[in-house]
């Protein structure tokens, strides 16, 4: 009967108290009541963040490949604020936590003169260290990311009297004011004789902390620029940008590319593999369902043979891609190496596929994709077969492109 917020506080406290009674051997404690009370769930009103990953939630879960393509293109959009473009690129590449971005300093950007590599020393924040910025992990940067960091540092106005290398990479325009006079944040808790903030921040390395953006401000840079972006091709609505959605995306893509649990734990800055098992749980389930649904079909070998025509290959490029229903040519492929993915299912959601303007061929492929989705739904849920949804969306875009309509994310590169 309590309000949600109060209920959460009381129930958490009661669980702790029941544990105390149990350990102390309190005679009047009913074990049935104890177990029933500890089974209470979802009383806090908070959404399980990992649930968004498991069900591929379109608002809070990982981004699809089509959405990633749109967001990556926006990094190059000169009309967007440079600070936002840099943060968006860092999230796309590394899936950093907001606190890690907040702790980055300008000196963490390293250019190695011998190797020519440019990398970023990212502070680690989950190692139970009392002082942050003690442990770091190096992340090699692409030329695009390195250029954005350099441009951002050049464009940022620096405060006087502080070593620029010690300043945060993302500098706050309104630094924290910790002087004794006029400080409205907690000044009534201090006696004048005890206010030593001025002396503490007279040290140059400590004064740089005044200009550090908080984690909340880092998140604000993301969602505060959502209205400047195109709509999501997945939902047809405004993007919901959150740093942890990018972490889910980086983790999911790493598993799909074959990373081991140890490699993924290092990539996402975790101490051990216990915190990243949920990525493998989802991906392995989806992989098994897709394999069982496709490899059991007797015509699978015909699909592969029709797609990989050795006689038509020039410089390892597929000159013809056939849809697996009636074997109509649906376009070309710009891949520079052999691809073993199934045509149509993989092609329509791939950035190397160049569709032709044969409407009948694309419509035949669409019928096959819809049938495939219906088959998969008999053994799984709609969320698990979201890969088919991406292919269907790409196929419909190819049909629109064939009809002469303007369609985003269609590769029309001449091969």
Rough outline: globular
Assign the CATH class of the domain at 81-179 and 194-224.
Answer: Mainly Alpha
CATH architecture of the domain at 81-179 and 194-224: Orthogonal Bundle
The value of Rg in angstroms is 27 Å
Low-confidence stretches: 293-317
Output the CATH topology of the domain at 81-179 and 194-224. hpI Integrase, Chain A
Strand order of the largest sheet: 1-2-3
So, the CATH homologous superfamily of the domain at 81-179 and 194-224? Intergrase catalytic core
Largest sheet geometry = 3 strands, antiparallel
Q: Helix content range of the residues, please?
A: 40-55%
Count of alpha and pi helical runs: 16
The structural class is mainly alpha
- Roughly what is the average pLDDT, rounded to an integer? 76
Order of helices and strands: HHHHHHEEEHHHHHHHHEEEHH
Strand content: 5-15%
Distance between the termini: 67 Å
Say how many strands there are.
6
What does this structure look like?
The protein is mainly alpha-helical. Among the domains are: 43 residues, no CATH class; 130 residues, Intergrase catalytic core (hpI Integrase, Chain A, Orthogonal Bundle); 106 residues, no CATH class. The protein is 43% helix and 6% strand. The chain contains 16 helices and six strands. Strands 1-2-3 form a three-stranded antiparallel beta sheet. Strands 4-5-6 form a three-stranded antiparallel beta sheet. Strand 1 and strand 2 form a beta hairpin. The longest helix is centred in the first third of the chain and has 20 residues. It is globular. About 6% of the residues have low confidence.
């Amino acid at each position: 009967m309590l309000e949600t917020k109060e209920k959460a506080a009381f129930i958490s406290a009661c669980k702790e108290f029941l544990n105390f009674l149990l350990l102390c051997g309190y005679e009047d404690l009913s074990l049935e009541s104890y177990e029933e009370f500890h089974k209470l769930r979802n009383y806090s009103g908070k959404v399980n963040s990992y649930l968004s990953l498991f069900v591929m939630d379109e608002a809070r879960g990982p981004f699809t490949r089509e959405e990633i393509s749109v967001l990556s293109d926006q990094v190059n959009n000169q009309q967007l604020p440079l600070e936002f473009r840099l943060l968006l690129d860092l999230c796309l590449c590394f899936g950093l936590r907001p606190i890690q971005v907040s702790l980055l300093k300008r000196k963490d950007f390293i250019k190695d003169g011998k190797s020519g590599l440019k990398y970023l020393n990212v502070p680690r924040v989950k190692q139970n260290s009392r002082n942050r910025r003690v442990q770091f992990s190096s992340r090699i940067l692409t030329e695009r990311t390195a250029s954005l960091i350099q441009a951002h540092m050049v464009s940022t106005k620096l405060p006087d009297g502080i070593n620029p290398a010690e300043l945060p990479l993302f500098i706050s325009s309104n630094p924290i004011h910790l002087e004794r006079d006029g400080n409205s944040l907690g000044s009534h808790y201090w006696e004048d004789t005890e206010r030593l903030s001025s002396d503490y921040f007279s040290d140059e390395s400590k004064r740089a902390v005044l200009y550090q953006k908080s984690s909340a401000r880092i998140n604000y840079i993301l969602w505060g620029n959502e209205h400047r972006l195109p709509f999501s091709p997945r939902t047809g609505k405004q993007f919901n940008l959150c740093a942890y959605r990018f972490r889910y995306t980086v983790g999911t893509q790493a598993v799909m590319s074959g990373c081991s649990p140890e490699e993924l734990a290092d990539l996402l800055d975790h101490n051990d593999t216990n915190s990243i098992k949920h990525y493998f749980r989802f991906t392995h389930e989806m992989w098994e369902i897709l394999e069982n649904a496709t490899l059991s079909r007797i015509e699978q070998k015909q699909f592969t043979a029709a797609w990989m025509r050795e006689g038509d290959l020039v410089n390892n490029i597929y000159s013809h891609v056939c849809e697996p229903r009636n074997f109509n040519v649906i376009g070309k492929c710009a891949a520079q190496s052999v691809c073993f993915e199934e045509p149509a299912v993989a092609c329509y959601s791939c950035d190397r596929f160049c569709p032709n303007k044969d409407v009948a061929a694309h419509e035949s492929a669409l019928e096959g994709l819809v049938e495939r989705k219906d088959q998969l739904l008999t053994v799984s849920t709609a969320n698990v077969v979201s890969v088919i949804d991406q292919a269907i969306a790409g196929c419909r875009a190819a049909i629109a492109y064939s009809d002469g309509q303007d369609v985003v994310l269609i590769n029309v590169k001449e091969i």
